Amino acid sequence: MSRTRFGDARHQFAEVESTQTIARQLARSGAAEGTVVVAEHQRAGRGRAGRAWVDRPGESLLFSLVLRPVLAPPRVPQLALMGAVAIAEAVEQTTATAPRIKWPNDLLLDGRKFCGVLAEAASDGETVALVILGIGINVNQREFPSGLQDRATSLAVELGHAVDRSILLDTALSRLDHWYEVYRRFGFTAVQPEWSRRCALAGQPVVSGGVRGVVLGIDDDGALLVRGDAGETHRVVAGDVDAARH
Ligand code: BTN
């Protein structure tokens, strides 16, 4: 049976609390897989680990996608990794830049973050019934909140000109549609090489939680592999990773 293409059902808002919240409400009312909620501005955008995702109206791409995968709960983060690959590819196709991915799913240009991906799931404990995949892309902003200037960027800053957000959205939805289908049919193993060739931290010294060492890459489940000082390999399954200071 053919399925609806991502974005065929599109809900566009000037302002919302969070596109994640609206997408979840629509999904609970029966919205089909591939339904998209897009907003020009979020009053309370959510990032990973309880962080805020802040925007100024009309500068970003802010959207959430309804997914209905059949998945065990530990695999949900793989959908965010898949999302990062799809968005990296969309940005490459529309802007001729080459984003890197910082584990697990931050997109970087010139070492600074311009895109984040958030996967929020609802499950009955054994299987996942619903995942809302949220994407925030800094597209046309030229200024960033104090404290973020060194770590954040946008496509406009990197390219030196404004970017058409609707073309980028259409391309992003098409690449998400493609990579989600690959993931559903072949699993994360089929996505892993595309994530790996964009790995921002390969070979670099990092700290992640209690682990310190050099990044080897990710495995077929999406876990980060870090080689410790004694040559041992650590598998990091969740959290953030930062460049180690010597
Ligand atoms: C992160 O890097 O911490 C993830 C950021 C995800 C932000 C997007 S913006 C659209 C969607 N709605 C939200 O409230 N969050 C996600």
Provide a descriptive summary of the structure in words.
- It is a single chain.
- The chain is globular.
- The protein has helices at 19-28, 76-95, 155-159, 165-186, 192-196; strands spanning 10-13, 36-39, 45-46, 52-53, 60-67, 100-102, 106-109, 112-123, 128-138, 205-208, 211-218, 224-227, 233-236, 242-243.
- The mean pLDDT is 94.
- The longest helix has 22 residues, at 165-186.
- Helix 2 packs across helix 4 (165-186).
- The chain has 246 residues and is α+β, with helices and mostly antiparallel strands.
- A hairpin with a 4-residue loop joins strand 8 and strand 9 (128-138).
- It binds biotin (BTN).
- Biotin is lined by residues 18-20, 42, 45-48, 51, 53, 62-64, 106, 116-118, 134-136.
